[in-house]
Amino acid sequence: MGIVERKEKQKLEIRKQILDASMKLFVEQGFENVSIRKIADLIEYSPTTVYLYFKDKNEILFNLHELGFQKMAEYNNTLWDIKNPLVRLHQMGENYIQFGLQNPEFYDLMFIQSAPMEALDTMVECDWKSGDVALGKLKETLQDCMDMNMVVKGDVNVLAMAIWSLVHGMVSLAIRHRFEKLVEEKNMIPMMKLSLNWLLNTMDSTGKK
Amino acid sequence: MGIVERKEKQKLEIRKQILDASMKLFVEQGFENVSIRKIADLIEYSPTTVYLYFKDKNEILFNLHELGFQKMAEYNNTLWDIKNPLVRLHQMGENYIQFGLQNPEFYDLMFIQSAPMEALDTMVECDWKSGDVALGKLKETLQDCMDMNMVVKGDVNVLAMAIWSLVHGMVSLAIRHRFEKLVEEKNMIPMMKLSLNWLLNTMDSTGKK
DNA sequence: TTTGGATTATTAACGGTGTTAAGTATATTT
DNA sequence: AAATATACTTAACACCGTTAATAATCCAAA
Question: CA neighbours within 13 Å on the CB side: how many for A152?
Answer without folding.
Answer: 15
